[in-house]
Amino acid sequence: MVLIWSTQSPIGDVAARETLDAALAFAAYDQAVTLLLSDAGVMQLQSMPNAKQAGAKNMSKLMKALPMYDIDNVYACQTSLSRFSIDTQQCVTPVQTATTDDIHALILGATHVIRV
Q1: Full set of structural domains in the chain with CATH
Q2: What is the mean pLDDT, run by run of 10 residues, along the chain of 116 residues?
Q3: By CB distance 3.0 to 4.6 Å, which of 26, 93, 95, 97 could disulfide with 63?
């Protein structure tokens, strides 16, 4: 399993978009992919209808497409969700919350970890 760990905000940088593109590329080549979002990366889970005005990429369409690429394991750091006041019921794609211990287990269970 490839763990793609995104810590970047969709605002002001292309790193978040490129990380998501990498996850989709691995999945397109039949690699099992798990996506982990932490720190400002959890902001990718929010719908951003005015993304361009905020200097961000609206990634909600890509996030909604994850199940089509068999990326069903999407985790978000519980602490980061709280810090950014994000409710998992309002996320653009289904997400599981992950504690520090859960994140540690994901890292140990992965054959490759890509953190951006």
Answers
A1: 2-115 (3.40.1260.10)
A2: 95 88 95 97 84 63 92 98 95 96 98 96
A3: 93
